Each structure stands twice: as structure tokens, then as C-alpha cells.
Amino acid sequence: MGSSLMMSTLNSTRDMPLTDKEIDALHKLASSKPDDDNGRVAPLSASAQPAADSGRPATAANAGKGLGSVDDQQGGIEDISLLEMLLWSALNLWGVWLLTCVLTMWSLRDHLPIRESLLQYFLAAQVFTVEDQIFCAYVLALSFFTLMCLDLWCQRCYEISFFHYLRTGDLLVLKLPEKREKTNVLSDYKVWRNPLGLFRGAEYNRYSWATEASALTNWDRELTAQDQGVMFGCSTDEDDPDSPDAIMAMAWRSSSSQERLQLAHRALGKDPDHPAALLLLAEEEAATLVETEGLLRQAMKSLETSGQPINAGPVVVVGCSQTTAGRNKALLVYIKWRLGMCARKLGHLKDAVRLFRQVTRDCPFLSAHENLIEALLEMKNYADVQQVLSKYDDLGLPKSATICYTSVLLRARSAGELPLVSVDINRGGVTNAELELVSSISRAVEFNPHVPQYLLEQKSFVLPPEHVVKRGDSEAVAYAFHHLRHWKQIDSALVVLHYSWMTAIAHLQNPTLQGRYFHPYPTSTRDGDGQILPSHHSVSTHPFKHTPVSIKVNLLGCTLSFLIGLVLQTFPAPVKAGWLVMNHWFLIPLEMCSQLLEHYFPAIWLTLSEG
User: Fold this and answer.
1) Rounded CA gap, 16 and 332, in Å?
2) HEC letters along 197-236
3) How far apart are CA 404 and CA 373, in angstroms?
4) Closest Cα to residue 304, out of 268, 266, 278, 270?
């Protein structure tokens, strides 16, 4: 295992990103099955349905309905106009057009006195006044500015370049371009509880005390209150408003930490061993992880020895209508989950893995398998990590950044253990394992393109929030916060990611309109991340918007033309002298060329100069 991955496989003969040939080979090898709205891969039958039926991107089964199909070609021939044919020939057959122009000038050589025309040009340039030059410079600047405004208008309203609009020929018939529909399969972002969330008292509050900045937003706290109110609600809470259970029901539904702690102490005053109150104090009042673990163990012991009924099956959350036994089961599983996190942070990895396995079996919606994966990675038990991935990286289960990027990490580790062999990629020497590695990187980057920036430490991150937006910047922060150390422990894993992730993003054309492995990227994730992440964190945006080249060129031309006109207006005499010198310098090589042509090819020069 080591750096042989980068030097012997992916880039054995050169140190540069992957080529289009490798990416094309990758797409032929890898299956591109889209996910459903919740990030689950939709299973395809032998006779796959067209993408238009379900709003999913086209797959290999219906790829024949694309641009290269016979129906499209037959229909396209009838719609091609003469102007489009001329534009196509000008762009693709420019050599033929150039040869045609040369032959035309040669056939009209008797009517084109080249030498006299050049002399007249230089005579006119010498009498070209400074006022004329100022006027031309300002007119040129105004022209560039007008083109830039038109390009900005087309980009904003129709999402195309103005020069592309000219190529279509619609401007000649005064036809506006068609507006592109911005409909998205995922119209709303999806918020999930962060399975790797920290403790408020022992971690979030200590960060706030040290930095005087809040690590959690109000909306994140409200979401946590809603989740806990539903999970720990019971149908008997309203029977006695002064009972500890009713008091804790109000505490779970409150989003204020101070009010929650007051209600928890009030419940403990009525029942010193109330498990729900001890759980809340462990979450939000304990200042260290050791205190947190002690309160959690006390709460679990109190719940197990209280004699109250506890369901034997998995947790089924039905809100306030669930029974006391169901609520007690949810409390017990939640306490074990948080105890596993304490054990992981305190270095008791075997206890953490055991508790996470129990929680994964009893309460799947807590996503404790992500905690299990992180603990197994810390133990360097990669075989068990692969076993967990093979179970949860299934076709019908929700995807997450942990699932996708851990798959990349394991493939990078496996590829890094290959022997050192000189491989020429251009000769087709890339193995299937290496192509699967690049495929997993493309898949992970498409699911969440924000993660590589944090793994490569190109962007600073904050404490992970209690909730994350699927495929958003908050999920990337939560993943990188806990998994960056595991990436650094595997040689060449970050090197492979560094050379591949930008190439993978570049091959995602219109990610908000069409996806390759998943549904199109939801454009509303930034809104959710802005409400979940603290205000002092700069939220990443995808797709990364770059200013079109045409706008940059027009802006540069407008600026230079305006500056030239300003210089001409401010310093007219030196500019006029410089203009004459520049024309003289330009005339010297032309005179030399004409003398050489007249000396070596007198017949041709005599023919061209006759008028």
C-alpha cells in the first residue's frame, strides 16, 4: 500500500488529470442507474421505461432515443434551413471558404491594384486626425459595452450566450430564443438528522464559550425539538400535567436550551431517577464527555430497572399516539446511540461498535450505520466496513456522503496495494479496479460535490450541525469533520481525489437539469444550508457559476477602448506622433515584402500591381 496507485496506475506515465478517453471507458464500464427523490437508486427492469415517464435521466436502456436516433435525424433534416447550413459550413468548412476567397481575389486581380490600395491606406492614415481616433475609440467602447449588455441579458433570461443566439439565425427573423425550463425533480431540499452530531453541553457549548459564537442556528434547534418531541411523545403525557412524563414532553418540544434544562430539573425534583430528564441533562448540561457518559449510564440503568414496559421489537415512531412501552423503547435505543458516541470519543472503540450494531438493528432511521462505519474506520477494520457498505449501498436504500465517499476510500486503498507496474494509459492499460475507483469518485462527486473541498483542506469548516441537507454543504461539513483523519491515514487517497474530482465535475453537464447516477442536483440546497449552518460560515454553491468568456472579452474590449480614447483626448500631440511612427514601422515590413516579391516573382507582382 502506498503511493504506487498514483505513479503506477492512474497516472503512471504523467502527472495530470484523467483524459476524456479514460472517462469514456469508465462510463462504458460503470452502470448509470438514477436514484429516486430520496437518493435511492431506482431498480430497472429488462424493459426500462423512458425517462420522461418518471422524470428520471436517460439510462442505457433508453439511450437510443437521444440525439443519435434515426427518428431525430430524419426529423432534423427537414427542419434545417439555408441559413443554418451556411452557418454550419462557415464553422466546419472554413478552409474551403478561405480557398474560395483566395481564388476569387486571383480571378479579380485585374480590378484589385493591391500596391496602390496599400499606399492610399497609409496616406489616409497620415491624415487621420486625433479627433477621428478619439471618436473611433469611443464608438468601439460603446460597441463592446452594447454587446456585453446583450450577452448579460441572454444569459440571465435565456441561459445562452448572445453569440450562440446569433449562430442560430433567430435574430435575422426577429425571433426570441426559447426560455429553458428550470423545473427540477427535487423542488425542495431534504433535511436529515446528523447521525454524527455532537453533544450540546460537552462540545457545542464549549465552542460557544471559547469563541463567543453560536455553533447552532435557531432553525437547527427547532428541528431537533420537533424530532425529539415526535420520538419521545406518548399518548399518556396529557393525563397528568404535573407528572414527570408530561413535564419532559414539554421540555422535548421546546427549542430553548434554558427552558429545557429548567423543565428537566423540575422533572427530576419529582422523580430523581427519571430517564428522560437524565438524558436531557447529559445532552445539554454536562460539561465533559465523562459526565455525559455517567448521566447516560444512569439513565439507561434507571430505565431498565424501573419495571416499566419496553417493546421487544424495533422502534416504530408514531408520534404522540405511541404507547408507554414504545416510548420507553425509543428512549433506550436513543440512550444506547449516544452512549456509543461517548465511547467512540473516549477511545472505547469495541464498546462503541457493539452499541452501534444494536442501535442499527433496533432503530434503522437513526442512521447509526454511519456511526458504525466511522468507528470501524478508526479501528482500521476495513473488511467489516466493506461488509456494512455492501449492505447499505443497496439499490433501494437512501444514499449519503458517508456511503459514497467511504466507497471511494476503500477502492483507493485497494488500488494503492497493487504492485508497481509500468502502465501506459493511452494503450489501454487501465485495469477494471482503477476504472471502478474513478467511477466511484464520479458517483460520489455527483452526489455531493462540496466534500472534496473540505477533504483537500481547500476550505475551512465549522462544527457540524445537528441536521444536514442531503447533498448540501452542511452534509459535506459533517462528513469531513469526522472522516478527514481516515483519508489522511490511507496513502494516495487524497492524491487520487485531488486529480479526479474537478474532472468529474467538469463532465457533469447541466447537473441541475440532468443527472448521470442520481437525480438532478437540487438548486434549493443552498437555502437550507444557509439556515442550518452558522452565519460566519461561507456556504458553498453548486454548480459553480463562472462568468462566460464572451462577457469577459467584451468587458476587456470596452475598458481598453475607453482608456485609449481617454489617453487620446488627454495627450493628443504625443499620440499623434506615436501614430505616425507606428504607421511607418508597419509600412517598412510591407515595403520589404513587396520588394522581395517584385525581385523574385516579377511576373506575379506585375500582374497584381496592374490596375
Assistant:
1) 53
2) CCCHHHHHHHHHHHHCCCCCCHHHHHHHHHHHHHHCCCCC
3) 12
4) 278
Task: Compute the distance between CA of residue 263 and CA of residue 276 in angstroms, rounded to an integer.
Answer: 11
The Cα 461–Cα 450 span in angstroms is: 11
Distances 180 to 152, 156, 157, 177, 221 between C-alpha atoms, Å: 16, 11, 9, 9, 38
Other beta carbons within 10 angstroms of residue 462's beta carbon come to 17
Residue 63, SS3 per DSSP = helix
Query: pTM (2 decimals)?
Result: 0.64
Cα radius of gyration rounded to whole Å, the chain: 34
pLDDT the model gives residue 198: 92
The residue whose grid cell reads 442560430 is 168
Q: Are 572 and 578 in contact (CB under 8 A)?
A: no
Handedness of CA 182, 187, 193, 195 (dihedral sign): negative
Please report the DSSP string for 542-577 in residue order: SS-----HHHHHHHHHHHHHHHHHHHHHH-HHHHHH
The band of 608, judged by pLDDT with boundaries at 50, 70 and 90, is low
pLDDT of residue 353: 94
Cα 564 from Cα 46, distance rounded (Å): 67
pLDDT tens-place string over residues 29-76? 444 444 444 443 333 233 333 333 333 333 333 333 333 333 333 333
**C-alpha 284: how far from chain center:** 34
Strand 191-193, strand 467-469: pairing: antiparallel
| Strand spans (E) along 355-499 | 467-469
Burial (CB < 10 A; 0-12, 13-18, 19+), residue 403, is buried
Of 278, 250, 391, give the one whose Cα is nearest residue 339.
278
In this prediction, residue 65 carries a pLDDT of 34
- What's the CA gap between 83 and 413, in Å, rounded? 56
Which is more confident, 550 or 146?
146
- Cα–Cα distance between 328 and 308 in angstroms, integer? 8
pLDDT in tens, 176-231: 555 544 444 334 678 889 999 899 989 998 888 888 888 899 999 999 999 888 88
Q: φ, ψ for residue 64 (rounded to 5)?
A: -70, -10
| CA–CA dist 368, 360 (Å, integer) | 5
SS3 label, residue 347:
coil
